[in-house]
Amino acid sequence: MNRRSLQTFDNSKDPNGPMYYNGIYHQFYQYNPNGSLWGNIVWGHSVSTDLINWIRLEPAIERTTPSDINGCWTGSATILKGGRPVIIYTGADTEKRQVQNIVFPKNVSDPYLKEWIKPDNNPLIQPVGQGLNSDQFRDPTTSWIGPDGLWRIAIGAELNGYSAALLYKSEDFVNWTRVDHPLYSSNASTMWECPDFFAVLPGKNSGLDLSAAIPNGAKHVLKMSLDNCDKYMVGVYDLKSDTFVPDTVLDDRRLWSRIDYGNYYASKSFFDSKRGRRIIWGWTNETDSSSDDVAKGWAGIHAIPRTIWLDSNSKQLLQWPVEEIESLRREEVSHQGLELNQGDLFEIKGIDTLQADVEIDFELTSIDSAGPFDPSWLLDIEKHCREAGASVHGDVGPFGLVVLASDNMEEHTSVYFRVYKSQEKYMILMCSDLRKSSLRPELYTPAYGGFFEFDLEKEKTISLRTLIDRSAVESFGGGGKLCIMARVYPVTVINGGTRMYAFNNGTSTVKVPQLKAWSMRRAQVNVKMG
């Protein structure tokens, strides 16, 4: 069984309400307690002191009232003044309308917050008002306090046939009033799921609490889930108009920035007051079949939690695995001063290649030969990754990693870069090609990919970090400029060991000044309490 063992919530869907409270990290998630297929959704609940090892508790929110009898769907947690946590979530009511409900912890002195109480006044917010679709009104954000002292939340919705993050205000967190304008809306799509709204600064440990004073130089981010991926905009929160104003508006949503360019959806972030950082979680689904899900008894995992922050140019988000994941590192191998000529494969030995953490720096000996960048590639990057695969020779690239490879290379997954020259900058293509990841038929095996800008004349090296965990391959390019989460199901994993290589198939020689790789031990994930 290709079971993920570094960090996972088996049989889980959307991350819900992550928070840090009284020394404990809480992660809730969409969960079917009766099976591995969608349905009977409640809020699963797991707790941790280190974001890596998790204890599974009983479900926190179950389908017990008319306002959530048909499903306890996605929502968010907020820490109120005085430190009391609260959750607002979407329920599917008796008419299958989407309404917003609230729950409070039964005992705030319980660090695990095992029990939650539903007040009698649910639902708090109903899909009423001109232009609203009661079937497209869900996933409230974490709340924040505006300059007028009132609480605010945003809810994903379809408004007059277009996508919107609707804005609501409250003085007491119980009685909510819809503001006469959305936080932001767009006619580029019809519905946003799982919106997230937060403030960011440059620097890994410069996370911000949206309800605290936001310093100069900070930006705001509006994230939304659509088109089977998570997209985002960077901009400012205009306090006078109570609206989000993106720095750049692109009419074609295919060009919007993405949190992750692979299998990653319904992400949710929170401010970690323990470390002063913002952490984001995403859901990655299975890409085999529903019958496979039933056979193994679980479906869906969460990606490794990531620290998320703003780049120095205040234009895009950067992400990196939380540093706690390094506590799982065991045997280490290290190589310096490698040279990879065209066609070279350098095998990385001495570690468990099924559960590994690999960091490689690639130094380019010649960038003058980089081919020209075609902006039309941005409209279908996966198509370009398919056409410019890891075995297709280029000028500068492809170079990168081959992971989960069988002895004869019939099965392998390639994570690699290609370098292109734009008018005034270099564009780096990063692909995670799953087309030969398994000999099993009827799997979804795309070639994921994305582009990021890079100042090669200044930085000289391009970094790649890949975490491998049997069926999960999670990669971070350019120091976190671009992330690709992938699911693979190689037969080789079932039968035994796999191989791992650094490679170069470009005509230009690539140097590897530093390569480090570690075996990763198994985390204690969703161990049942008691």
Automatic annotation (TrEMBL):
InterPro entries, per database record: ConA-like_dom_sf, Fructan_Metab_Enzymes, Glyco_hydro_32, Glyco_hydro_32_C, Glyco_hydro_32_N, Glyco_hydro_beta-prop_sf
Keywords for the protein's UniProt record, in alphabetical order: Glycoprotein, Glycosidase, Hydrolase
Domain Glycosyl hydrolase family 32 C-terminal: 324-519
Top-rank lineage group of the source organism: Eukaryota
Keyword Hydrolase applies: yes
Molecular function via GO: hydrolase activity, hydrolyzing O-glycosyl compounds
Coiled-coil segments on the chain, per record: none
Residue stretches making up the Glycosyl hydrolase family 32 N-terminal domain: 13-321
GO biological process, one term: carbohydrate metabolic process
Keyword Glycoprotein among record annotations: yes
Record family assignment: Belongs to the glycosyl hydrolase 32 family.
PANTHER family from the UniProt entry: BETA-FRUCTOFURANOSIDASE, INSOLUBLE ISOENZYME CWINV1-RELATED (PTHR31953)
The protein's name in its UniProt record: Beta-fructofuranosidase, insoluble isoenzyme 4
The species this protein was found in: Panicum virgatum (Blackwell switchgrass)
